[in-house]
Amino acid sequence: MSRFFDRIRCNYAMYRAMFANMDIPTASRLVFGVYSALLVLHIMLPARLVQGYCCDSRGKPLLYRLNGIIVYIFTLYLFYQKDWFLPSIARAGLYRHFQACAVCACLLGLIVSSWFYMRGCANAAEQAYSARNRCITVDMLGSARTATARSSSSGAKGRSPPGAGAGAHKAASSAPAPALTPPSSRSRSRSRSRGRSRSRPPPPAVPAGSDRGSLFFLGCEFNPRVLNVDVKMFLYLAGAVLLQLNLLSAVEAQLASPAYVQYANGQGHGQGHGHISLALKTYVGCFSWFLIEYLLGEQVGTAGMSRCMVR
Questions:
Q1: What contacts 63, CB < 8 A, 6 or more positions away?
Q2: What is the DSSP string of 238-301?
Q3: Mean pLDDT on 7-22
Q4: Any domain includes 29
Q5: Does residue 285 form part of some domain?
Q6: Which residue range is the domain that position 109 belongs to?
Q7: Is residue 158 included in any domain, yes or no?
């Protein structure tokens, strides 16, 4: 038992020293500056418009601006070529202030999440739409149009009773369109009609307004947008570019590290300045390949189930 408390005291002392040495102002400027720069680049740089799988509350398919690979290349150019954007001394800042940057990023995420929570709770229409098990998708619109076309064609083939004339056609044309029904409810109704005893339970809906903690965690809106920017797609892009910047910052820190230069020259495992270790080369190379492939296939993220099920 004494070993357990000794370990707790050691960990407490370690984390206390770590937080005491954090440069929170510098880290906050780095985090806020990088996120702001990526948002400006995402808005200003050219992009291709892609119609997504999800729809808004009015049933209109969402349009996405995809320029992840362009933002990635332009950010790397600014990282290495423009000292007025990011001075050479600050290139290793993401690595040297990694713990402080992580804390500032978490605080920024809590602040932005609180703003989205208040915005979603203030919008009654979006809150009612988000109470669904999933958002409206393109396949649901297609099934509704097919059902409407079938009903109109069957009505045209049937004979009208004597004296009905234009009044019957007017009543048929003024009939409301069939309501959009999620595929899960249609499958459940078919299974009940066939006499099946087992049916898959529906996915849980958003809790009632009294459960504010769950609403804050799960979200109040489907596919929120700010300045015509889809927040989910921007976070995919920002996370990928930030991962690459952290890797390059580690490279800059190793190139400028006196300990690495002394070790490399003294032990014969490197050549000092201008060279990095084989382990870091492998790490950066594998992750860079993954990020480039990920951003080139950015369109796949507009059709994932996370876009229609997760708020």
A1: 49, 50, 51, 52
A2: HHHHHHHHHHHHHHHHHHT-HHHHHHHHHHSS--STT---HHHHHHHHHHHHHHHHHHHTGGGG
A3: 75
A4: yes
A5: yes
A6: 23-134+224-309
A7: no
* pLDDT level of residue 217 (50, 70, 90 thresholds): confident
Quick one: CA dihedral 83, 86, 91, 93, positive or negative? Answer: positive
Q: How many structural domains does the chain have? A: 1
Residue type, 287: F
Q: What is the pLDDT of residue 27?
A: 87
pLDDT at 147 over 50: yes
Q: What are phi and psi of 53, to 5 degrees?
A: -85, -25
Burial class from Cβ neighbours inside 10 Å (0-12, 13-18, 19+) for residue 20 reads: exposed
Select the more confidently predicted residue: 222 or 188: 222
If residue 53 lies in a helix (H) or strand (E), which one and from where to where? Answer: strand 48-55
Residue 83 is encoded by which pair of tokens?
Answer: 């000292």
Tokens of 285: 């190379």
For residue 232, is pLDDT > 70? yes
Q: Taking a C-beta distance cutoff of 8 angstroms, is the pair 97, 22 a contact?
A: yes
**Contact at 8 Å (CB) between 203 and 184?**
yes
Provide the 8-state DSSP code for 83.
Answer: T
Report the C-alpha dihedral over residues 112, 294, 228, 311, rounded to 10 degrees.
-50
Tokens of 186: 């249609």
pLDDT classification of 293: cutoffs 50, 70, 90: very high
pLDDT band at 73 (very low <50, low <70, confident <90, very high): very high
Q: How far is CA 268 from the centre of its chain?
A: 45
Six token digits for residue 91? 């290139």
**Is 201 within a domain?**
no
CA distances from 89 to 83, 84, 92, 294 (A): 9, 12, 7, 30
Q: Could you give the CA distance from residue 283 to residue 12 in angstroms, rounded to a whole number?
A: 31
**Residue 231 in this model has a pLDDT that exceeds 60:** yes
- Using alpha carbons, select from 138, 180, 139 the residue that is nearest to residue 51: 138
Residue with tokens 């690595």: 95
